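Notes to self after the Tuesday call (sharing in case useful).
The group wants a holo model before anyone commits to mutagenesis around the pocket. I volunteered. Ligand is zinc ion. Logging inputs and output together so the record is complete.
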Amino acid sequence: MEPQAAYVERHRPPGGRRSGKRDLIVNTFLGQHGHLSADDLVELMRSEDHRISRATVYRALQWMVDAGIARKVDFGEGRFRFEHSYRHPRHFHLICKSCNHSYEFLSSDIEGLIEEVADARGFDVRKSVVQIYGTCEACRTGRQRPEDEAPTELLLARDALRIAIATERSGLEFYTRAARMTKDVRGRRVFQQLAEEEGEHLAKLEARYQEVLAQDPDLESRPAFLFFKGAANGLFAAGTDVLAKGVDDKQALMIGIRCERGSHRFFKRYGERFEDSEGKRIFMEFADEEREHLELLIREYKSLALRQAAKPPRRRAKGRPRRASV
Ligand SMILES: [Zn+2]
Ligand SMILES: [Zn+2]
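Result:
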């Protein structure tokens, strides 16, 4: 993970001068979660060093906005708020009009839709803002909202891992079943190998999930950050259903190819959209792994087709009616 100082350095405009006071403001700002108004930051700075003027804080904020370190958000309160982008992936907001609190979420389906609309209209998107106004659960029910908030990056990593684990699990089930049903010895070995790999990787993902959970004792129960309508695990589940209906070796391999291709595309497409974060890495690594599986299955499919072409299928035993092919 990129350290904070390196992050600031990378965003420093060329020829930009260093300034002790500004560095102090930048570091304090980056240490905060949530959405601060300029005055919130002034207050925060003055609690540390009261010689810092309001104008210096304002200038530092503008500098951070220009450098891409801070994002300006307008929640319709008549003043701007600021959030930093260090280890803070892009997101949308739910804004409570009763308590003015905002809640962050990300929906890959909404992002996809925005892309689709912009493409259709030949529009070059620089920034998109989705803000949903209403009443939050805490205000609606009188239930206490947790005082502290988890960093967005941690929530994204948690949710990315959950999706990857669910996909891995359905992949494992698919290959275990395919290995049991496949009569071709080589094809069976391929499915067994893939089942083994999925099992190993599942254990790794679960260990990584535990590591992420260890960073915040309440992480598991925090609300979802990342929303997906169609997650990739559905692909393998559908594949397993087809297997259950009874298929031959070649068809089983073809189903595997379709599942892996769909899964690879899913993780790559969404992973590419995320900003640099642990969640992005999880998705991109997973996409690579699915591509390797895809390539292995394609090789096996081709070699099985060659073997079958070289050796005509054996006659069926007399008396057993041939099943009608679909
Ligand atoms: Zn509220
Ligand atoms: Zn935000």
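Two things stood out.
Residues 152-310 form a domain with the Ferritin fold (CATH 1.20.1260.10).
The pocket of zinc ion (ligand 1) is lined by residues 96, 98-99, 101, 136, 138-139 (CB under 6 Å).
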